[in-house]
Design a protein that fits this description.
191 residues, alpha/beta, elongated
Length: 191
């Protein structure tokens, strides 16, 4: 005579803590991959701004002012004079970039209360960039970088890019791709 097969024991339902522990490893792996990809994408961002890069002559568009030729050094100095001791955000974008279009509201929000310079990379002539910004209602302080020299010098071969410039000229917390407003603000605060 054969023995009856043993019935599987019903397991006790898992508590929320047990479920959370199961997901914590997955969350840690996702965060590790995310930050690893960010570190790899921004590996060419220099730690400090180069003098040649700082003095590259570019057209500057400011809200309510006529376009003029300036440099990143002059524009950073003007912002740091208005905001002494504060970090300055640098946002690199392009008119043809769909992610940049998605981020316009976020950048507008950051620009309302924090020092921010944008760099229009390979987006056409200063007049074309001014028309684009006007058509979108973007009142950004913008350096027009038609050949992408400034963006490349900052280490951004793609857009959108974001970095923080400290008062002593160091580049901190670079990121490439979609970035949230709180992420931008956190980077400005941490730098």
């Amino acid at each position: 005579m054969s023995a009856a097969p043993a019935r599987p024991q019903a397991s006790a339902p898992r508590t929320w803590r047990q479920r959370w522990r199961g997901h914590a490893g997955t969350l840690a792996l996702v965060l590790l991959v995310f930050f690893g990809v960010q570190a790899w994408q921004t590996r060419t961002v220099p730690a400090a701004l180069d003098d040649a890069l700082l003095d590259l002559p570019l057209t500057t568009l400011r809200p309510g002012a006529a376009e003029q030729t300036s440099s990143l050094r002059a524009e950073l100095a003007a912002l740091q004079q208005r905001h002494p001791g504060r970090n300055v955000a640098v946002y690199v974008w392009a008119e043809w970039c769909p992610i940049c279009t998605t981020m316009q509201g976020t950048v507008d929000g950051v620009a309302t209360d924090l020092p921010l310079i944008t760099v229009a990379m390979q987006s056409g002539t200063p007049a074309a960039v001014a028309r684009y910004q006007h058509s979108r209602g973007l009142a950004w302080h913008t350096l027009v970088d038609p050949r992408g020299q400034l963006a490349q010098g900052l280490g951004f071969g793609a857009v959108p890019g974001f970095a923080v410039v400290t008062p002593d000229g160091q580049l901190r917390w670079p990121t490439l791709g979609l970035t949230s407003g709180w992420g931008m603000r956190l980077r400005l605060w941490l730098a």
